[in-house]
Structures are given as C-alpha cells and as structure tokens.
Amino acid sequence: MQLFSIPLRVYIEDTDAGGIVYYVNYLKYMERSRTEFLRALGYDRPAILDGGLLLVVHSAQVNYRRPARLDDQLYITAQLHKLARTYVEFQQQVIRDGELLCDGIIRIACVDVDTMKPTALPAVMHQQLTHIFHSSTSKS
Question: Does the keyword rRNA-binding apply (predicted)?
C-alpha cells in the first residue's frame, strides 16, 4: 500500500458562490482519505483507538495550487511521510485529471483521551505503519 487514494466528486455544498471548492473542504477531503487508509488496515473507527487513545490533527501545512470546481472528479491521496513513536505524518494530494490542485503534510498525533497529552501509538498500529513506511521508502 504505497499510495492510497479515494475518488471524490465535488458537490454544490462543497463550493462557494463562485462555484469553486471552499478552501477548508480540501482538509475535509484529506481527512476522508486518511480515514479510509486506516480503515483499509482494519480500524473501524480510526480516530478512536482502544485503551483511551485518540488520533488528532496536530498540524497541517497545505498548499493550494489550482481550484477544483463543481462536478469535478477528484482523487485524494494519502501516503506515509514520517513515522514517530507518538505521531504519523501523511503527505496528501488532491488531483484532477492528473493535475495537482492541492497538497499538504498533515501530522496526526496519538493522545490520551483524558489528558490530551501525546502518547505512543498502539504497538500493533505502529508495526503496521512501520512495515508500510519501510516498504514504500525502499522502493523509491
């Protein structure tokens, strides 16, 4: 699973008065792709982990390059960029017909639900992500 992607159609609710996708919706699209990436690994509710742990967005660095418009068919990618003990970074893209519209690095942190302080990713999840990360970096 080197590069994961999902298809997505732009609906009227995604656009502003000018018919272009409102900037915050790109972040929503990226969230959906990351969620489906983790769902494909077997996590039914990817943001809520066993043992009182949550996965939360820590930071987002996003570049808006070209606008998406009503009815566009997009592909939203999610690829592991960096993996640490308490977080994972995804490199993500929004693509239309091979054209890069938006890209970003999104850091997802694992936190304790009660304290909201960083904590280690669950061992099984970390092992899965490590395997994917190393298999994708060794082929590049």
Answer: no
Using alpha carbons, list the distances in angstroms from residue 106 to 18, 25, 30.
28, 14, 9
Contact 90, 34 (CB under 8 A): yes
- pLDDT tens readout for residues 29-61: 999 999 999 999 999 888 888 889 999 999 999
Q: Which domain CATH number covers 116?
A: 3.10.129.10
Which residues are tagged catalytic?
Answer: 16
Exposure class string for 82-102: b at 16+ Cβ within 10 A, else e: eeeeebbbbebbbbbeeeebb
Specify the number of domains making up the chain: 1
Place of tokens 């606008």: 67
Sheet containing strand 53-64, edge to edge, reads 4-9, 73-83, 87-96, 99-112, 53-64, 48-49
What pTM was computed for the model?
0.92
Domain enclosing residue 94, as ranges: 4-138
**Residues pairing with 68 in the sheet:** none
